[in-house]
Amino acid sequence: MDIYEDYKDSGVSWLGEVPEHWPLQPGLAIMYENKSKNTGMVRNSVLSLSYGKIRVKDESELPGLVPESFETYQLVDPGDLIFRPTDLQNDKTSLRSSISEFEGIITNAYLNFRFKDGAVPKYYHYFFRAIDNNKLIYGLGSGLRQNISFEDFKRFPFPVPPLQEQQSIADFLDEKTAKIDQAIAIKEKEIQLLKERRQILIQELVTGKKVWDGSAWTAPAETKDSGVDWIGEIPKHWEVRKLKYLTRKIGSGITPNGGALNYLDNGVPLLRSQNVHFTGIDWEKVAYISPDIHRQMSNSQVQYGDVLLNITGGSIGRCAVNFLQSEANVNQHVCIVRPNNAISPIFLNLLLSSELGQGQIWYYQQGGGREGLNFQNLKNFIFTYPPRNEQLEISRLFDIIDTENDKAISIKMKEIEKLKEYKTVLINDVVTGKLRVHAGSGKQLTKDLLYS
């Protein structure tokens, strides 16, 4: 890939210079708004814009809607560009547009752009993606919720390369973005495998399937029946107990009277379910309460070494050890599990986060629509554990392995971010003419992306 021979000033600050032979035209010259309705139910495939792609909705996703509801929907043809114009003020992260590969219908909450002769829809799909990535649309909206209409695009400047160039650019970006997405998918799979390996290791350690002999992990020399079918054999010197015999406290907090109105910018941290993660406690997004309210909530004051467990909602089961020496409290969605001297906090956290603990959480959770775990069931969780000195050694060795695992995951995540950034820059530079597309461009790049 190289650049074009001659450029001109586009007169548009964000576009900068464009190839000399590319005219700029207003949106109304290349597209129009399609408002054709599904009168008479001529189509029944309902489409949706999700994560920057158009997909066909499954029937199970259409609860409560009757066929008559779809008569007001818009007709969508392959090549139409669907744009979500609403709520610009509150949502500045979602991808808002995509070209449709399907024939179907979509709610009239979306804009439907259809391109005229002389415009290759897929090229303008990528140009709209560049507009989206550069956050240009957020200066266009109007109204309280910052909505966009076709009026905002009628005078918006669009480059119009020759038709064959538009097609070449679209074909090039189809190929290259697919290869980048493939490379991202490979790295995401590698991250998933690292996480699965971590869970397998935790399960083996907390059930005694692997023990440390001083130089390597090995199977225990002597075992005994745990007396629990789903645990099986454990090392001979290990014990089996219910959680209530391993703890001094199991209980959650409350939401202060007045709820979020009592939250302060500073004060005593009030930990909520969004703060508790398997990787630790997120102290950046905590709410704060006054010392007076903290004293009133004496039953849910957090101590150093407490294990915090989410007991409601979609994050049920997430747990972490509190290593904060200063004061903190929890609300009703977070349970304090305070270990006694028989078990170390880190080993207890490993037990709760293992398949052994998570399986019991899944089994006992109550609440139907909103999952929940009650204290009585939690107290009756069954766990295996070694002597405390062995717990500490297992925790120490696991921490070394887990740190290396976290580093590997972090590297993969950074690589994914680099690929996403490169994809954004590539789309922007190609559709605005900063880079010129030639046949075979980027083949070495593709190889590097896949095998790096």
Topology, pairings included?
Elements: E1 7-9, E2 17-19, E3 24-26, H1 27-30, E4 31-33, E5 47-50, E6 53-56, E7 74-76, E8 81-83, E9 97-99, E10 104-106, E11 111-115, H2 121-133, H3 151-154, E12 157-159, H4 163-206, E13 211-212, E14 217-218, E15 223-225, E16 233-235, E17 239-242, E18 247-252, E19 268-271, E20 276-277, E21 280-281, E22 287-289, H5 291-296, E23 307-310, E24 319-321, E25 329-330, E26 334-339, H6 345-353, H7 355-364, H8 375-379, E27 382-385, H9 388-431, H10 443-451
Parallel strand pairs: 19-25
Antiparallel strand pairs: 1-2, 3-12, 4-11, 5-6, 7-10, 8-9, 8-11, 13-14, 15-16, 17-27, 18-26, 19-22, 20-21, 23-24, 23-26
Description of the structure:
The protein is of the alpha+beta class and 452 residues long. The protein has three domains: 1-22 and 161-225 and 386-452, Bipartite methylase S protein (Helix Hairpins, Orthogonal Bundle), CATH 1.10.287.1120; 23-159, Alpha-Beta Complex (Adenine-n6-DNA-methyltransferase TaqI, Chain A, domain 2); 239-384, Alpha-Beta Complex (Adenine-n6-DNA-methyltransferase TaqI, Chain A, domain 2). The chain is 33% helix and 20% strand. It contains ten helices and 27 strands. The strands form eleven sheets. The protein has a four-stranded antiparallel beta sheet. Strands 18-26-23-24 form a four-stranded antiparallel beta sheet. Helix 2 crosses helix 4 (163-206). It is elongated, with a radius of gyration of 29 Å.
